[in-house]
Design goal:
Blueprint (H helix, E strand, L loop, with lengths): L1 H35 L5 H15 L5 H10 L8 H21 L5 H16 L7 H33 L5 H41 L11 H17 L2 H10 L5 H21 L5 H15 L7 H29 L3 H22 L20 H9 L4 H4 L25 H6 L2 H10 L1
Helix pairs in contact: 1-2, 1-4, 1-7, 1-8, 1-9, 1-11, 2-7, 2-8, 3-7, 4-5, 4-12, 4-13, 5-12, 6-10, 6-11, 7-8, 7-10, 10-11, 12-13
Length: about 425
């Protein structure tokens, strides 16, 4: 019993570390658009998000029940070291995607870690396949599309309702709306994501015989999970905030308001139904939808493609890391110690790598480095009308969309035989010098 008690304590600490990484990994979900549009200062935004994440952790336990008794069969011989290995897989993947600035799903990293560790240690009968499909995979596919469509429709409606108003007249109101909607997303994030750690800790307590099967999370579990995710949120995942706020599309206040409102509604509805969906995927889908909803807005599909690829890799990648950790931890006390040492070494190496090009609240809005345009973006630029200063033809010359205007001092070439006759030479030369 002494060994089990010590191991459960290690699992609880590891679960809270994962909750901490979840907080700074997913801060961008609530605050990226608010920070990128200047509605709130970066530090103020993450502080508000942290407080509301803590409050949200106390609002519901439905998602925690899904984790503790829905996906993994708690009566199939699951041991605390299995949960420990699953958490290690989730933490390593969270930190790798944070280093790359990719808003991947912390939720799916946790699910993949638990499933991979369980398959190695117990077998397929330890995983509730139907629950995985119904409460994880289907929401993972549907949620980004639902949130994206809602944000796109809301963005178009917003611009239509304010088409006769000057942008300066509406910007202040939309920024206030962004603050309110960001608060709602933060509350929803605490309600959904903090519960996942509560469910893991409760599962560990059940496997160790500390609490009865199918029990609700104790109050101290709820409070500790809420505090851990709030602390991680306050420190801010600035790398992912930059990607969400500047890397996917250029967000304006009406778009930010529409994206955050649609995302919050989707997350709160899923929490009520017990769906442990990815808030990252929901918010990313909403940001892309808002980019498509604004006339002239273009989504950077190269960044979006890398992000979606990370979504697809999250479950199997975290599962593979957790499977290896579970195999090693199953060898005994030395195996558990070896997993802990290796995990600390990997996490330390990732942190040191991040210090080479640090991103914090002082440079988060500078935007990502320029990258080659993707196929979709290139196609959209081809069919989009060029800016007025580039499309204005030279005197008598036909319009040539997308052709740069000649530099000042370089004589414009007439496009046809009528050009010289229709425009006197001195006038053409003066116009060229003016430009």
């Amino acid at each position: 019993m002494e060994h089990i008690t010590l191991l459960i304590g290690i699992v609880i600490v590891t679960a809270l570390v994962f909750d901490f990484t979840n907080g700074f990994h997913d801060t961008a979900n609530a605050m990226a658009t608010t920070i990128s549009t200047g509605a709130l200062r970066p530090k103020t935004a993450v502080a508000m998000s942290a407080v509301l994440n803590l409050v949200g952790a106390f609002l519901s336990v439905e998602v925690a029940k899904t984790i503790s008794g829905g996906i993994i069969d708690e009566g199939a011989g699951i041991r605390p070291e299995v949960i420990f290995a699953g958490l290690v897989g989730a933490i390593v993947w969270n930190l790798l995607t944070w280093l790359a600035g990719l808003p991947s799903s912390s939720s799916h990293a946790l699910f993949g870690g638990l499933i991979g560790a369980t398959l190695v240690s117990v077998g397929t009968h330890g995983v509730h396949g139907e629950a995985v499909v119904m409460k994880v995979l289907i929401p993972a596919v549907a949620a980004p599309f639902v949130a994206g469509l809602a944000a796109m429709a809301a963005t178009r409606l917003t611009y239509r309702l304010t088409r006769d108003r000057a942008e300066a007249d509406t910007a202040k109101g939309y920024r206030a709306g962004q603050i309110a909607s960001a608060a709602l997303v933060s509350l929803a994030h605490g309600t959904n994501d903090a519960q996942k750690t509560m469910g893991v800790i409760t599962l560990a307590l059940i496997t160790g015989g500390v609490v009865a099967p199918h029990a609700d999370p104790p109050l101290w579990v709820i409070a500790s999970a809420g505090l851990a995710i709030a602390l991680g949120t306050y420190l801010g995942g600035w790398r992912i905030i930059r990607t969400m706020g500047k890397g996917i599309t250029d967000i304006q206040p009406p778009q930010g308001f529409a994206a955050q409102t649609g995302a919050a509604a989707t997350i709160l509805a899923s929490s009520h139904l017990g769906f442990a969906l990815s808030t990252t995927q929901v918010c990313s889908g909403a940001v892309m939808g808002s980019g498509l909803g604004r006339k002239g807005g273009v989504v950077r599909w190269s960044t979006a493609g890398r992000m979606v690829a990370a979504w697809g890799l999250t479950l199997p990648a975290a599962g593979l890391v957790a499977a290896g950790a579970a195999f090693l931890a199953g060898q005994g006390d030395w195996g558990v110690a070896a997993v802990a040492v290796l995990a600390l070494a990997v996490c330390g190496a990732i942190w040191f790598a991040s210090r080479r090009k640090p991103i914090d609240h002082t440079n988060v809005n500078e935007g990502p480095a320029a990258e080659p345009a993707g196929v979709v973006t290139t196609a959209l630029r081809t069919v989009s009308p060029p800016p007025a200063r580039q499309s204005a033809p030279a005197d008598g010359a036909p319009e040539t969309a997308g052709v740069p205007v000649p530099d000042a001092g370089v004589p414009a070439q007439p496009a046809g035989p009528d050009a010289a006759a229709s425009t006197p030479a001195p006038r053409r030369k003066a116009a060229t010098v003016t430009r």
